[in-house]
Amino acid sequence: MKIAYLTRKLFDGINNGYKQNVAILVENNRIQSIIGINDIPSDYILEDLGDLYVIPGLFDCHVHLVWNGCTDPNFVMMNESNEKTAVRAAEHARLTLLHGITTVRDVGGDYKAVLAVRDAVAEKIIRGSRVIAAGNPIIMTGGHVHQFGVEVDGPHEARKGVRTMLKMGVDLIKVMASGGIYGKTELPGQPQMTVEEISVVVEEAHRAGRKVAAHAEGLEGIMNALEAGVDTIEHGNLMNTEVAKLMAEKQVFVVPTMAPFYLSANFGSEKGYPDYHIRKSKAVLSGSYNVINYVKEYGIPIAAGTDCGGPNKPHGAVVYELELMVHAGLTTFEALLSATSNAAKACGVESELGTIEPGKIADFIGVKNDPFVNISALRNVDTVVKEGRVEKRYGVGCEIENDLSILKLGQNDLIEITT
After folding, report:
1. Residues 135, 99: contact at Cβ < 8 Å?
2. 362 & 391 share domain
3. Statement to judge: residues 47 and 141 lie in one domain
């Protein structure tokens, strides 16, 4: 099917500002061209998006689909069946899509559940955000969120852990390089895997063409991950100037996930967070703001991620992360790039997604108000198009019934319906 999506204002994910009065020509799920609104070929079906502000489909580069966003989602997951977790993850992917996030990078969850959802979405069995999945993270014994990790000790076990996840078919590898705020007895500044262990993780992943994302909140953990050659630093709270300059030099992405630290530090008490969780969040929150300063000053590439699914973070809330980024000093343009073209680069899919350009997969969304004026415009998504198919329109998700036209009866086999 050939569809021409008409728009008065198009942000392509590259240039600062809007193209005016253009049509996005879509065929076979891909963008064929972007042309003037008066130059549309006659064989295209017209879909007028009116005065919506059209931007690329958003990314969330740090989610946990297996978690449900309650105060203790890990407890819920550990006390339910794998089958129920998979169903829950599928619903989270659907909800995320309706918020305009067409792609998520899942950086930790039972591989059976997450990969099943990934494949079901890709095969169009269910509706949901496209999933780039890490499966079970590589973690030291007893390390950060070890409940769903592959626990390893030493380079040999770390190598086998990566190979095990690659065997299962994951899209990237997640490694825990430091402690965090979630566990009662761990500390964000505590390094949790050695340079040697992380190095073999990177070696095996890169050999297989996969990127490595490193959870690293503390300085030593960040430094270990960088020395080992990871592709993205998740959180990065306690980095210093020296590390920031190194990240900029190596063009290693940071995914700050400001939301979990901000929520816990400011609203943890009223939401019932444990005292240790609140205390640790307050200790590292200023570091989250420093990360944004380093991004601005030294040019560290940045991608948006929320930690959605974690405590009191509902799925689909990437706009909240963008609001915090702007609050910390990014321009709205920079924030939008972090969730579109920059995010696609961080995920390694920039040739397919992240911008509205000819040849790319047709992922884009429409909002009623201008996100360049106020990034919070993304809180109200009117239209979602994923792979050229309308998934949401006029603020309502599209649910298409099964086509029953092939179920025909012969002329003499009509069923009489009685009441």
Report:
1. no
2. yes
3. no
Q: What's the domain count of the chain?
A: 2
> What's this model's pTM, rounded to 2 decimal places?
0.94
- The residue with tokens 């879909």 is 47
Instruction: Tell me, yes or no, whether 316 and 203 share the same domain.
Output: yes
Q: Calculate the alpha carbon distances from 14 to 164, 299, 336, 380, 417 in Å.
A: 38, 17, 10, 22, 59
Examine residue 93 and state whether it is found in any structural domain, yes or no. yes
* Tokens coding 371: 């996100």
Token pair recorded at residue 409: 């009866």
Run of H or E including 288: helix 275-298
Q: Helix or strand or coil: residue 91? A: helix
Residue 413 lies in a domain: no
User: Could you tell me the residue range of the domain that residue 200 belongs to?
Assistant: 58-347
The series of mean pLDDT values per 10 residues for the chain, 419 residues long, is 97 97 97 96 96 98 95 90 95 96 97 97 97 98 92 98 98 97 87 97 98 98 98 98 98 97 91 90 95 98 96 93 97 98 98 98 98 96 97 86 66 51
- Which residue is associated with the tokens 């690293």? 216
Number of other CB atoms surrounding residue 82 within 10 Å: 13
Q: Answer whether 362's CB lies under 8 Å from 381's CB.
A: no
The answer to whether 212 touches 227, Cβ cutoff 8 Å, is no
Task: Output the domain CATH number for residue 44.
Answer: 2.30.40.10
If asked whether residues 116 and 48 sit together in one domain, one would say: no
Q: Any idea which residue has 């899209």 for tokens? A: 171
